[in-house]
Amino acid sequence: MNIIVPMAGMGKRMRPHTLTVPKPLVPVVGKPIVERLVSDIAKVAGAKIEKVGFVISPKFGEAIEKSLLKIAENIGAEGHIFYQEEALGTAHAILCAQNILEGRTIVAFADTLFKADFTLDTSKDGTIWVQKVEDPRPFGVVKMDDDGKITEFVEKPETFVSDLAIIGIYYFNDGDNLKKELQYLIDNDIRDKGEYQITNALDNMKNKGAEFIPGQVTEWLDCGNKNATVYTNQRYLEYIKDTDLIAESAKVTNSVIIPPVYLGENVQITNSVVGPHVSVGDDTVIENSRVRNSIIQTNATVTDGVIENSMLGNFAAYHGEAKDLSVGDYNVIR
Predict the structure, then answer these.
(1) What distance in Å separates the CA atoms of residue 86 and residue 44, rounded to the nearest whole number?
(2) Coil, strand or helix: which one is 262?
(3) What is the pLDDT of residues 230-239, one digit of tens each?
(4) How far apart are CA 68 and CA 277, in angstroms?
(5) What pLDDT, on the 0 to 100 scale, is given for residue 204?
(6) Whole-model pTM?
(7) Most distant CA pair in the chain, distance
(8) What is the DSSP secondary-structure string of 206-251?
(9) What is the pLDDT of residues 278-310, one digit of tens each?
(10) Domains within the chain, CATH numbers bracketed
């Protein structure tokens, strides 16, 4: 089985945190979003993952490419890098990885995490992972019949069609067939709202006899902006709170840690209260501060701060008082 991860977007809604790294490499509980996504998919796939293809912008650079290949290696898979030169839609992004779009394939867009209690049913033509939402208009949605099979795919409906939103994770029993349908959209310039959409390819496959079923997740966690990512960090800490979240090299002096809290390697906490729902990256120093419900990345410094619902980037330094911050890499605020 192969995994394809389209992730070429610039992550504008996550700025300033995506000025130096792409959004899928922003950490949640100490690991990049895309690493947690690939690992979680491997756990529910029910089969060995052979190849992982990352569809990225050529602007990402060699260091990021190496880190992505390492993510594939960590689950025992062969990593591949593919480039999307221009953002032309979901169908186009997937087709950029056509060299590994074969056989059993999972496609997972890298701005979402999930909690699921099922193992993938690979006997079906395809599984579209969905979640009920209050407002389905920003999403692709599915309609189902009484037998639980998907009967219709609609991209960002302006009027109500269904409240089952496609969360951006798909399983296909025949990747070659998907590749053929994606190529058909490109060759015939079939667009929806100006872009080549995977929902059009899914509709074509269904009309030719393919049967798709929904895979409903327990919880869908968005990482589209700062507030959503901080909330995802909170929920993910709750998922894994019974595991060892504090590195042995972390040093806590005259401080209170309120679980769940993740502390990376060589973190120093002094005269502070940290938690709940805080993730602190490697080599970060927090002194005389109160921090809760926040993500602080690596090599950062927080002094005399009151921080809540915040994200601080790598090498950021904060001195003073605040309650809600979004500070990018290398920024200093006094």
Answers:
(1) 32
(2) strand
(3) 998 999 999 8
(4) 27
(5) 92
(6) 0.85
(7) 66
(8) HHTT--EEEEE-SEEEE-SSHHHHHHHHHHHHHHTTTS--B-TT-E
(9) 999 999 999 999 999 999 999 999 999 999 999
(10) 2-237 (3.90.550.10), 242-333 (2.160.10.10)
